[in-house]
Amino acid sequence: MKIAGTRILVTGGGAGIGRYLAEQLLAESADVAVLELDAARCAELSAASGGRIRVQPCDVSDAAAVDAALQALADAGFEPDVLVNNAGIIHSEPLVNMLSRGERVHARESWQRVISTNLDSVFFVTGRVVDRMLARRCKGVVISISSIAANGNAGQSAYAAAKAGVNALTRTWAKELGAMGLRFVAIAPGFIDTPSTRAALSEATLARLQQQIPLRRLGELEHLYLALRHVIENDYLTGTVLEVDGGLVI
Ligand code: NAP
Question: Which of 55, 230, 235, 250 is positioned for an S-S bond with 42, CB 3.0–4.6 A?
């Protein structure tokens, strides 16, 4: 599939990776829409793109909100050919915090929030978008931003489980819907140099991590865009998890 002229929906496109991907796709003449939680971010992104990115406020972990947002986009003439499930939150919490004087076991609230934002959202948005693609006989592509944490990452039970779920859904849907011409691919970044990464990790941790990465550096946003473009353009790619991590998981 060519990028120019293709209608591409990016969730969580108001900041970080999603915003970069949305702006790069726009620069390559895609017709881009974004679902974004934060209303102020929505207004700012719309203004920054000169109104060329269609921005729809939406909490993608709320199925009813997703229905309303997709209908609003459809009413404005936008039906996605490509979906990028990017919205997510990174959360670290040990299964048992042995140093805590209060509750020691991983909180149920944070477990549910992380699963809801990172996994339920992918299930809700993909089901609805694919239903619309099938009705239009569109041979669309669904790309979900996973993480190498899906392989297991100490201190990230909920996040690792959610991203492993995203990988499982990607493979399941590739098998289930391949005969209809639909493709499903996950992109699993390692450590990408974003504000959210720098907010989550100390300088010392980042320096130590870089020594463990075979290429000895963090990834750049551009590396993820190159992967995304490859997945959109290569019509024989489906059911796979593309790790963009400088070799960290080998
Ligand atoms: P980010 O900077 O925090 O951006 C996430 C975006 O998603 C924000 O615009 C956020 O909006 C939005 N969002 C969050 N919850 C949402 C919801 N319920 N509904 C709609 N939008 C929502 O994070 P990022 O680093 O770019 O991460 C993007 C994706 O990449 C995530 O899936 C993450 O797990 C994955 N990832 C990132 C890295 C990395 O190194 N950064 C590595 C591996 C995987 P608000 O800010 O307004 O809440």
Answer: 55
Give 225-240 pLDDT, tens digit per residue: 999 999 999 999 999 9
Is residue 97 one of the residues assigned to a domain?
yes
Give the other-Cβ count within 10 Å of 112's Cβ. Answer: 13
Asked if 159 is an active-site residue, the reply is yes
- Residue 150 falls inside a structural domain: yes
Q: 166: CA distance to ligand 1 center in Å?
A: 15
In a domain, 1, yes or no: no
CATH code of the domain containing 194 = 3.40.50.720
Residue in 20, 159, 225, 236 annotated catalytic: 159
45-62 as b/e: b if 16+ CB within 10 A: bbeebeeebbbbbbbbbb
- Record the tokens describing residue 188, joined without a space: 């699993």
Nearest atom within ligand 1 for CA of residue 13: 9
Chain segment 100-141, per-residue pLDDT in tens: 999 999 999 999 999 999 999 999 999 999 999 999 999 999
Whole-number Å distance between alpha carbons of 237 and 232: 9
Alpha-carbon distance of 94 to 91, in angstroms, equals 10
Read off φ and ψ for residue 90, nearest 5 degrees. -95, 135
- Among 11, 129, 13, 17, which Cα is nearest to 79's? 129
d(C-alpha 200, C-alpha 66), whole Å: 28
What are the tokens at 204? 């010392």
